Amino acid sequence: MILSAPQSILATLHYFDISDYPLTLEEVQKYAYCPPMELADIATVLQIIDDVLIPGGYVTCQRGLYSIAGRSHIVDTRLERYEAVHKKYKKAMRFGSMLAMVPFVRMVAVCSSLSFGNARDESDIDLHILVRHGHIWLVRFFCSTVMEILGQRPNIATREKKNALCLSFFTSDRDGDCSTLARAPHADVVDVEFVYWISQHDPLYDSGDYYERWYKKNTWITQWIPFHFSKAQHPRRTIQLAWWQRGLKRLSEYIVSLFGNWLEKLAHGFQMKILPLSLKQHLSTGTQVVMNDDVLKMHPHDTREQTQQEFIKRVEIIKRTDICKS
């Protein structure tokens, strides 16, 4: 599906409007949904917004942020969330440094609302941890156990998750292609939330170009957002292990390797035994919960279906809008 230039811009703004997130001009172009190639020129994006969408009453601009007409209040929402985002990133850096020391961890990346800079004050901190193949269950056991001891995991009993570390997505370095985790397209609309989720990973720790390799395995997302590109590490949001930490990590990996795959099997069996019923019920029933030797994805209550349905409704309205057909 290729939309006209005005349709693409409006569809992009509508997708992010679902989560109360206005966009800068650069973001409108970078995240343009199913755009024609003319939108590769950011000047063209600006011209269409200024000459067509704003005069037509479809889009407004306030403080350099673009939103759907009548929704300019979300500009304040985005700005207000900056403080919460800053605090959560500081915590992600602090505990991400600990996770980076876990044997066989190759990448720690922030994902979901925090990586977009759109985290609410009550939100948790979602992390994607990429590990060396053959050790995914052991790494999850180490990471979850350490964070549980430190009191940094969500409270299951009270459902309190503010600033907690969500360790619900692990992948191995064997492949990295996440396309099989996407929901099936519906009404010619892809699993749009998952596409943008993949696009916005923010690597904090990368032990050797693992993020770039993972991103290249997932360039299938450019079928829908062709102007997107991988995200460079922020110099003040980069975890670097000291020489002695790297040495200690290599030593611990060597010691673990002496046991062969026995510890991996033990960690696998133990975690499956204590797996919550809410996760077991979703095994083999979709893409919310996936558990194998290359992927551990534990999101039984993800919002992708609702987001996809809402976006489909909005795209259909956009397609029927006369001014957007040119």
Could you please describe the fold and organization of this structure?
This protein has 326 residues and is an alpha+beta fold. It folds into 2 domains: 5-76 and 307-324, Arc Repressor Mutant, subunit A; 82-302, 2-Layer Sandwich (Beta Polymerase, domain 2), CATH 3.30.460. The protein contains 12 helices and 8 strands. A 6-stranded mixed sheet has the order 6-3-4-5-8-7. It is elongated and about 65 Å long. 38% of the residues are buried. The mean pLDDT is 92.
List the helices and strands and how they pair.
Layout: H1 5-17, H2 25-30, H3 42-53, E1 59-62, E2 65-68, H4 74-100, E3 105-110, H5 113-116, E4 125-131, H6 136-149, E5 165-172, H7 192-199, E6 202-206, H8 210-217, H9 243-257, H10 262-273, H11 277-280, E7 289-291, E8 295-298, H12 304-319
Parallel strand pairs: 4-5
Antiparallel strand pairs: 1-2, 3-4, 3-6, 5-8, 7-8
Helix pairs in contact: 1-3, 1-12, 6-10
